[in-house]
Amino acid sequence: MKKAEIEFTVNGKKRTLFVKTNELLINVLRNDLNLTGTKYACGIGECGACTVLLEGRPVLSCLTLAVDVNGKNITTIEGISKDGFDPVQKSFLKNAAVQCGFCTPGMILMAKSLLKENPNPTEDEIRDYLRGNICRCTGYTQIIKAVKECANNHNQDK
Amino acid sequence: MQTDTKILAHEFEYLTPNTLNEALDMLDRYQDKNAKILAGGTDLLVKMKTINLKPDYIINIKNIQEINFITYNDDGLKIGAVTSLSQVEKSKEVKAKYSALYEAIKSMAAIAVRNMGTIAGNLCNASPAADTAPPLIAYGAEVKLANKRGERAVPVEEFLTGPGKTVISSNELLTQLNIPVLDENTGSSFLKIGRVKADIAKINIAVYLERKNNVCKSCKIVFGSVAKTPIRVKGAEDILRGQQLTSDVLTKVAEKASEEIKPITDIRSTAEYRHEIAKVMVEKAVNLAWERAGD
After folding, report:
1. Closest C-alpha to B122, from B103, B109, B138, B139
2. Looking at CB atoms within 10 Å, which of A33, A80, B139, B152 has the fewest?
3. What per-residue confidence (pLDDT) applies to A14?
4. DSSP B24
């Protein structure tokens, strides 16, 4: 069995692990590090449930080899807020943008990334940015409302 | 087909060259040993999970900084092999000058996939529906292929030879893309039909044309997903060249283009639909490029 040592930062914490070369990042996060907020669904890059931030940018952990993140910085849904809920999470709760919750971690990470790039997105821009994330409860209306409200609050705070 | 997309069951030797020379050495050493290049992974890993692709060696080229760049100068636009689609999409020059390429990338998959995937990978994967291929062919772009002994330049139009097939040898690496500077009075456009926004194309088209004194001086019209490779419809180009853009000319161009394409019926669409919608797409795409070319 081919194994390699990797050292990477997950949610601000340095981790050193031995992983098989064919191990996927999603399974290392979920099984080895017990960070089960990251979800497995389609496994082929269609649904966005496994989204994590790599160096701050959203990528799919089901299509990333664990050995490939050696030396890199990963943020999962568990790591987006140091204390309590992040404003995006609060807005999702307030707007009932969570139904079964399976797509939520991916949606929230995408929304965070969007608001970082574009603090004042239009509805079209929100829909376009989240188009790779599928919600099978079809709670899109509330999800988009939550992101929009969060952007508005964020701008008022400034 | 039994697939498990939760894991990668197949084992392989994993190699991470840090320089181009190291990578070319590895490719030379493993050229007969079933090695695969990993750039974005959005095609490679999916194929390993779903269609039984089992490489013995995976050479991850992502850490090679020499081929991670995007530059624009008098020589044109140059894009490194590991430069992500997102990096290209965010380039000011691409957005301002290379409209068809910009629109093609914007139409691809979704943000997370574009943060991972590369144009070089889109070309090497050689899908007939590859969205970046039609604009690159329309612009007359070329790819640089390197091996241990040297390098060669191949036009994108000749690079793709069939579904999943290119002219690249097993000891070669696609290192960069060169897209020429576009002349004044030129415009380009890209259109795509899919079921939903993030979809693979049922059919796509790129048009690049030069407009002078209200006449089309030169043009390229390239369709994807209608043949074994993206193809130019040269008969339609001939009709448009030297003409003013009237609705009569446009109708003839559309009819000819629809005759020239060779679509099949597959899971995404039917041959009949592709022939019909091609006419509409040519008209729209040519009009758009024409407007952008100004005069």
Report:
1. B109
2. B152
3. 98
4. H
For residue A29, the 8-state DSSP code is I
A9: domain CATH number is: 3.10.20.30
Between the CA of residue B265 and those of B107, B123, B131, B165, B222, what are the distances in Å?
23, 23, 19, 20, 20
Contacts of B125 in chain A (CB under 8 A): none
Chain B contacts in chain A segment 25-44 (CB below 8 A): 27, 40, 42-44
Contacts of B199 in chain A (CB under 8 A): none
Read off the tokens for B40: 């974005």
Pair A75, A133 in one domain = no
* pLDDT score at B84: 98
Q: How confident is the model at residue A158 (pLDDT cuts 50, 70, 90)?
A: low
- For residues A65 and A93, membership in a common domain is answered with no
Min Cα separation B295/chain A (Å): 32
Q: What is the pLDDT of residue A139?
A: 95
Residue A45 is part of which domain span? 3-79
Q: Are residues A45 and B49, on separate chains, in Cβ contact within 8 Å?
A: no
Pairwise CA distance, residues B249 & B267, whole Å: 33
Number of domains in chain A: 2
How far is CA B216 from its chain centroid? 25
Condensed to tens digits (0 to 9), the pLDDT of residues B29-86 reads: 999 999 999 999 999 999 999 988 999 999 999 999 999 999 999 999 999 999 999 9
First to last CA, chain B: 55
Chain-chain contact of A59 with B10 (C-beta, under 8 angstroms): no
Of A43, A59, A131, the CB nearest to B197: A131
Q: What is the distance of C-alpha B217 from the center of its chain?
A: 25
Instruction: Copy the structure tokens of residue B53.
Output: 């692709």
Last residue of one domain, picked from the residues A79, A97, A132: A79
Number of domains in chain B: 3
Q: From CA B10, how far away is CA B40, in angstroms rounded? A: 19
Claim to verify: residue B75 and residue B171 sit in the same structural domain: yes
Tokens for B244, please give them.
Answer: 């003013």
- The secondary element (H helix, E strand) that includes residue A118 is none
User: What's the complex ipTM?
Assistant: 0.96
In which domain, by residue range, is B285 found? 186-293
Of A21, A54, A58, the CB nearest to B111: A58
Residue A75 sits in the same domain as residue A7: yes
Domain boundary among A58, A79, A100: A79
